[in-house]
Amino acid sequence: MAGTVLVTGASGFIGQRLVKALCVAGEKPRCLLRRSLPLPPGAEAVNGDLLQPETLTQALAGVDTVYYLVHSMAAGRAGFESRERTAAINFITAAANAGIRRVIYLGGLGETGSGLSEHLQSRLEIGNLLKAAPFATTFLRAAIILGRGGASFEMIRWLVERLPVMITPRWVSTRCQPIAVDDVIRYLTGCLHEERTAGETFDVGGPEILTYREMMERFAAIEKKRVLIIPVPVLTPKLSSYWVGLITPVKPSISMPLIEGLANEVVCRENRIRELIPFRLTPYDEAVRIALAEEEPRTGST
């Protein structure tokens, strides 16, 4: 590479795994961190915060490519869209001044209409801001990511393990295309070395399209549990987000926007990235088994 690779959001669910994968591949990534965190050998830590633009000059010095993995929901539900927008604008300004060549952004899969949840709408807005910036942005759009420590995976796991009977809204029939976290990491690292992905937007998903009901039932079968799911028309996603918050350890600031977004179908509309970065995609049941066998993550990040 012509310069350093910077990972923002390096302490998160995806960021920690990506940093490790980059180090294994021989890269020496620089990690933007707000607090100290153990890093794999070869990784460099730099203190900084996208909401504090004065901290970004040093972090971006000599950088060629940036992974943009920042997410603001963990800081609280109120105003997370504004925080994400401010962070992105601060980053774009600093990155343009530093002469950054490429950005690789992981956002949310979903349609682009007016009916998107606040969470998905914010993810799309950040992607559009980055793509309009004076550097080449690769925008990867993913649905539910299956891996230990991921908010969506942990919600499914806790619901299946704690609620043998679930009264749910109609969103249980919404289709989704979940993807194993290891496959997401393969795409992220693959984009770094595949220049044909620069400036492009790709949908990334696993090999199966499932409803949320099917995902929970198959999850229960893997754990040898029985679960009865009863959809009712009067229970809205917003109401269901409250009892999800009571049952699961996922922070309400994270679980509520995710639950409200379950009414939106999240299915890949194109699969071009499979031709550029080919590998065997992990089936749903296999991805769940791998996640269940993983050790608990060091942090509660998303």
Automatic annotation (TrEMBL):
InterPro entries per the UniProt record, alphabetical: ComplexI_NDUFA9_subunit, NAD(P)-bd_dom, NAD(P)-bd_dom_sf
Record-annotated NAD(P)-binding domain positions: 9-141
Pfam families tied to this protein: NAD_binding_10
Recorded superkingdom: Bacteria
Stored SUPFAM superfamilies: NAD(P)-binding Rossmann-fold domains
Molecular functions per Gene Ontology: protein-containing complex binding
Name the record gives this protein: NADH-binding protein
